[in-house]
Amino acid sequence: MYQDHLASFAVSSHTHAAPPHAIAPLRIGMLGLGTVGAGTYTVLQRNAEVIAARSGRRMELVMVAVRKLARAASIVGSTVALTDDPYAVVNHPDIDVVVEVMGGTTLARELVLRAIANGKHVVTANKALLAVHGSEIFAAAQAQGVVVAYEGAVAVSIPIIKALREGLSANRIAWVAGIINGTTNYILSEMKTKGASFADALADAQAKGYAEADPTFDVEGVDAAHKLTLLAANAFGVPPQFDQVHVEGITQLDAVDIAFAERLGYRVKLLGIAKRHLHGLELRVHPTLVAADHLLADVNGSMNAVMVKSDAAGLTMYYGAGAGSEQTASAVIADLVDLARVMDVAHQHRVPALAFQHSAIAALPVAPIADVETAWYLRLDVARAARTVPQVMAVLADAGVRVRLLEQFDHADDAELNALVLLTDPVQERVLRAAVAQLEALPHVMGFASTLRMERLA
Ligand code: HSE
């Protein structure tokens, strides 16, 4: 039955009428032919008919700029003009839209600004570029009346920018949170399910084309922070405020804590969290304990998921591939289809780049991490023979930290030690840190405490 359905889809997919010849094609210039560029080329070719039937125009790839011409020729053959001069693309008189999939923030910024100055639209999957230089780029695009679209920049295959900009436009949004880096989610999943080492899991993620050119962006949480910056802008009507995001990655995570969290019914995930408060925002990326029965706990491998809490729609959740060649191409081409549909529309009638009208965007203060309130997981390594628990509880009670659960586990590596694991109620970070400093000074507490934030996201 399912097979039949697929077969009939395959037949019908060839029967779409071509768009009327009178409508000019969308003429595309591309910067880069790496993982995302090659995927975009392949999907544009393979799905040309269905894409044209949806957009009302044919997509014509006019020129691609690459660093390695021979490698690029092995991918596109003689179907597309190749150049090693990216300015030939952004200055090309017969190109309507520049697809920037080269990455980086220096040359990419220059080229994107040049394309905009030349009156060209831009589609990019470059989250670093928009998180860091977004205000400048979006202002230039607004002044020129051109589109800068970037669905592929955030949680690649998930249409989360479209959901925020269009689907949820009636709502006041309270928070956006989720797993927005495929590489780190893949690493954490491989470590948990297969006992893989961090290094092996990262190498695997790189081989699969999930990781950034510089994978420290992934594992140190920077890539997730880039994406969170764009999510927050679309959710709250603020400009990209990347420098205000508190960022922690997964490199400092101890496998012991992942295992203890599991035993207490939690999973550790790298989350990006943006919350709106009365007077400002919280913007943070860090490893986080979520309950094992939470929807985010079962998002594994390179998959991503984003939850949005809004006042009218309530809680919504979006799930899909968070990295990958054709998965990102899907979003890049969706932006091209959107553009093909509105190319001839006056700029003020197009969907605004950051969900809010350009004139309505205003920065909000971002709370320092010390002011942020969350529940906590604490691990203290304590001398086995000592009666440390009453002292620990007294310190926490005096500091105003309420303990919800306390467990003692055997220490994995040292028979003389116990691991004292505590879960707290929500408390301001500065209060928790002050209490932890006192705990670390207790006579039978060894080394530093391990601290991880917890979220309910309900
Ligand atoms: N390196 C990114 C990730 C690619 O792993 O999520 C997709 O943005």
From TrEMBL:
It holds the Pfam family NAD_binding_3. Residues 32-151 form the Aspartate/homoserine dehydrogenase NAD-binding domain. Residues 159-337 form the Homoserine dehydrogenase catalytic domain. Belongs to the homoserine dehydrogenase family. Its EC number is 1.1.1.3. It comes from the Bacteria. Pathway: Amino-acid biosynthesis; L-threonine biosynthesis; L-threonine from L-aspartate: step 3/5; Amino-acid biosynthesis; L-methionine biosynthesis via de novo pathway; L-homoserine from L-aspartate: step 3/3. It is an enzyme of class 1 (oxidoreductase). Keywords: Amino-acid biosynthesis, Methionine biosynthesis, Oxidoreductase, Threonine biosynthesis. This is Homoserine dehydrogenase. GO terms for molecular function: homoserine dehydrogenase activity. InterPro entries: Asp/hSer_DH_NAD-bd (IPR005106), HDH (IPR016204), HDH_cat (IPR001342), HDH_CS (IPR019811), NAD(P)-bd_dom_sf (IPR036291).
